[in-house]
Amino acid sequence: MQQRSLYIVIFSTLFGVLAWVSVTMREDYETTVAVPFVLQEIPPGMAVQTPLPHTLQLRFRGEGWRLAGVLLGRAPVITLSAASLPSSRRPLTFNDFADHISLAPGVRLLDVKPDSLRIELGTSVRKRVPVVLDCLASFREGYGQVGPTSVAPDSVTLTGAETVLRGLDSWKTERRVFENIRGSLDAEVPLASADPFEIAFSVPAVRIAISVEPFAEKIIPGLPVQVSAVPANREVILIPPRIEIVVRAGIRQLSVLSATDFRVETSYTEIAADSTGAIDAEVACPAGVQLVTKRPDHLQYIVRKRL
């Protein structure tokens, strides 16, 4: 008896829900749908030279059942032929879009966003530009990058309207952040999107490679300090005449470094303009080598006439 009562309760509940849904879905509602927009049949040698959205926001009104068919059924697509663009270069408006979409009976198109769209064609050209990485790499403590970052390919061919490509001299990748790296990195990085312009790429992505090694420090003693641009009638004596530096690099690079790989220099112009009695010396390091410190930081000097 109790089981029968339970069935009655369940059946009554389901019937009530279905009756409520049936009544509710007969009412009119409004909904907004993002619909793909496709421009096709572009004449050979031509390209779109104005911003072009990939989707349009369409607002519909109709009975709930019919709108459910729009939302759950096959998504509508607005396809427009370039040959049908207005010859007067007027913008496309609501009526132009409404003519290119089929709606079920009882469903009305109320609005289109953007409410107007200007599409113009121009001469299509190709242009080869270098790829610029938009990547940030950080390394685990005790590790670092050795050598430059490799990018393959290092340039990309763009195809699009001449007026769009005219001002482009490079193309970025998408933003990527690589953290806590402790081994060599090899990754694919997509090129940045061209939206809202129509630009085709010869490749969709580039591969980057970063060589990573354990890092260490090394002391390079006794580096002579050179003074540049000293007048012929002047002599500069530095105190001390040599400095010691501490550098940081990959362990393999450190193993072959010597004093001849570095240059320490200051200029007579800096000495002549100094009023403190001490100047700084610039240290030129090989690529991939970081200067940690130098001793001493500042040098005293004596300037005298050359005999």
Give a description of the structure.
Helices cover 17% and strands 47% of the residues. It is an alpha+beta fold and 307 residues long. It has six helices and 23 strands. It folds into three domains: 2-119, Beta Complex (RNA Polymerase Alpha Subunit, Chain A, domain 2), CATH 2.170.120.30; 128-210, Beta Complex (RNA Polymerase Alpha Subunit, Chain A, domain 2), CATH 2.170.120.40; 217-305, RNA Polymerase Alpha Subunit, Chain A, domain 2. The strands form six sheets. Strands 8, 16, 18, 19, 21 and 22 form a six-stranded mixed β-sheet that branches. Strands 2, 6, 10, 11 and 14 form a five-stranded mixed β-sheet that branches.
Beta-strand proportion: over 45%
Which fold does the CATH topology of the largest domain refer to? RNA Polymerase Alpha Subunit, Chain A, domain 2
SSE-based structural type: alpha+beta
The total count of helices amounts to 6
Largest sheet: 6 strands, mixed
So, CATH architecture of the largest domain? Beta Complex
Helical coverage, percent range? 10-25%
Give a brief outline of the structure:
This protein is of the alpha+beta class. It has helices at 2-24, 64-72, 94-98, 162-165, 251-255, 268-273; strands at residues 28-40, 46-48, 55-63, 78-81, 108-113, 121-132, 135-139, 143-145, 150-152, 155-161, 171-172, 176-181, 185-190, 200-201, 205-210, 212-228, 234-239, 242-250, 263-267, 278-280, 282-284, 290-295, 298-305.
